[in-house]
Specification:
By secondary structure, this protein is mostly helical. The protein has 17 helices and no strands. The chain starts with a helix and ends in a 7-residue tail after the last helix.
Length: about 325
């Protein structure tokens, strides 16, 4: 590289830095809006990752991280040797597949249906009704389910009795746990999940639909050839993020439904970590379980992102 080229590169560096600072100052309102979220992730997500070191220690609270003895991968070996490991893994994967196959398409279908509604009043009313459950905690959702499905005076079982049918103990049945779980997820989250898809559909050029109508395309063909391809990148990104949560189903929801009668199909990694870590005080072991969950999720996100790029999508990184 010639001396002139080197001088040119050096001369452009300050300009680049000053240009970056100008953009930051110009868009300072946007960066200030990002700041709370950024601080949240730094304080509550990244800094606590330093505590993962206790997964390789025999951690004692009174000794602290620096004073607890090292045990290497002993807790991971114990995890894989646990009799419950494959049962917990199977239960977690089954619930994840139910989320992926049954729940994930529901917000897309709802968004497509709402996008076809021409009455703004009716559309907004429906949107409000299906959004409301998202703002209720899982405690309320499960409590409503208990009222509806309990054997004693539950609405559903009372209807069964009126029809001369036998009552079903939904809440204590291992067979009904998974259907009950996925229906609750759909009820609470499906409406909220439509927001991103409706926003993506709002950005589609209306002229595309006009051209399709002139060519004789009906509503279904417009959805299939215009709407879905236009939001495909959004679907792929959300699918990748969903795959990253393969072992992260959420503690509160499953724990509230868990009991001694359905534990065989309801025990997942999140509830197992709670039992081992908080109830039994096995902090290092429960940290090892959480580390295993996160590691599997990271691998799957990387693989899903790589596959999305192979098929022509942008991915998330």
């Amino acid at each position: 590289m010639g001396e002139a080229a080197v001088q040119k590169i050096k001369s452009t560096k300050p300009a680049t830095k000053s240009g970056l600072m100008r953009r930051i100052v110009k868009n300072r309102a946007i960066y200030l809006m990002i700041l709370p979220g950024l601080l949240y992730f730094i304080i509550f997500k990244y800094i606590p990752m330093g505590g993962l070191v206790i997964a390789m220690q025999d951690y004692k609270p009174y000794l602290g991280i620096t004073g607890s003895p090292w045990v290497g991968f002993r807790h991971f070996e114990r995890l894989f040797a646990e009799p419950m490991f494959f049962t917990i893994l199977k239960n977690t994967l089954v619930l994840f597949l139910l989320n992926l196959v049954i729940y994930f398409p529901v917000p897309i279908v709802l968004a497509l249906m709402l996008n076809e509604v021409r009455s703004n009043i009716f559309k907004r009313s429906v949107q409000t009704l299906i959004y409301i459950p998202h703002f209720m905690s899982w405690v309320i959702i499960v409590a409503i389910t208990f009222v509806m499905l309990s054997v004693d005076r539950g609405i559903i079982n009372e209807i069964f009795a009126m029809l001369g049918l036998n009552k079903i103990n939904f809440l204590m049945s291992s067979e009904w746990f998974r259907p009950m779980y996925i229906l609750q997820v759909i009820w609470r989250e499906a409406g909220w999940g439509t927001i991103i898809y409706l926003a993506a559909m709002a950005a589609i050029d209306p002229q595309l639909y006009e051209a399709a109508r002139m060519d004789g395309a009906n509503r279904f063909r417009q959805i299939w050839h215009i709407t879905l391809p236009s939001i495909r990148s959004v679907i792929v990104v959300l699918l990748i993020l969903k795959i990253g949560d393969v072992l992260e189903l959420g503690f509160e929801h499953v724990y509230l439904l868990l009991n001694s009668m359905n534990r065989e199909v309801a025990e997942i990694f999140d509830t197992y970590v709670y039992t081992a870590g908080l109830k039994q005080g096995q902090y290092s072991f429960s940290t090892a379980v959480g580390f295993f969950k996160s590691f599997i999720g990271l691998i799957l996100v990387v693989i899903a992102n790589w596959l999305s790029k192979k098929v022509g999508e942008e991915g998330i990184f």
